[in-house]
Amino acid sequence: MNKYEIALVLSSKVDDEARNATLERVKNRVTKSGSTITDIDDKGKQRLAYEIQDMLEGYYYFVHFEGPDDAPAFIERHLRIYDNVIRFLIVKQDA
Questions:
Q1: Closest Cα partner for 3 from 64, 63, 72?
Q2: Fewest C-beta in 10 Å: which of 6, 32, 52, 83?
Q3: 2-11 vs 55-67, strand pairing mode
Q4: Are 80 and 8 within 8 A, CB to CB?
Q5: What pLDDT is attached to residue 94?
Q6: 3 DSSP β-pair partners
Q7: Sheet holding 2-11: strands in order across?
Q8: Cβ contact 48:55 at 8 Å
Q9: Of the candidates 78, 85, 71, 70, which has an alpha carbon nearest to the alpha carbon of residue 37?
Q10: Nearest to 6 by CA among 54, 83, 31, 48
């Protein structure tokens, strides 16, 4: 099992309920990939480095998980189609 981190930026234009529902969908995808979530770091609403889709702010989350080699590709396929996800990055953590 490898350790990974998802850096996730969610839209600031949606309400708390929709944002929480999107985060739950992301967590479900991670567990369906055969991975185990070890930590979720909620950084809250922060200013973006540059304007994305007419937004200057977004909600930042860092999801740490352990999973098989093919888990990032599986998760990425689904993150691309979620409406409220404006940016994401999955990186492998050093051992």
A1: 64
A2: 83
A3: antiparallel
A4: no
A5: 83
A6: 66
A7: 36-52, 55-67, 2-11, 85-92
A8: yes
A9: 71
A10: 31
Q: What is the spatial distance between Cα 3 and Cα 93, in angstroms, rounded to a whole number?
A: 5
Average pLDDT of span 67-95: 93
Pairing, β 55-67 against β 36-52: antiparallel
Nearest to residue 84, comparing CAs of 30, 33, 31, 8?
Answer: 8
Structure tokens at 26: 């992301």
- Average pLDDT estimate for 50-65: 95
Q: Which residue has the tokens 């999955």?
A: 90
Please give the full DSSP string across the chain, using - where no structure is assigned.
-EEEEEEEEEESSS-HHHHHHHHHHHHHHHHHTT-EEEEEEEEEEEEEEEEETTEEEEEEEEEEEEE-TTHHHHHHHHHTT-TTEEEEEEEEPP-
The token duo for 73 is 């590709």
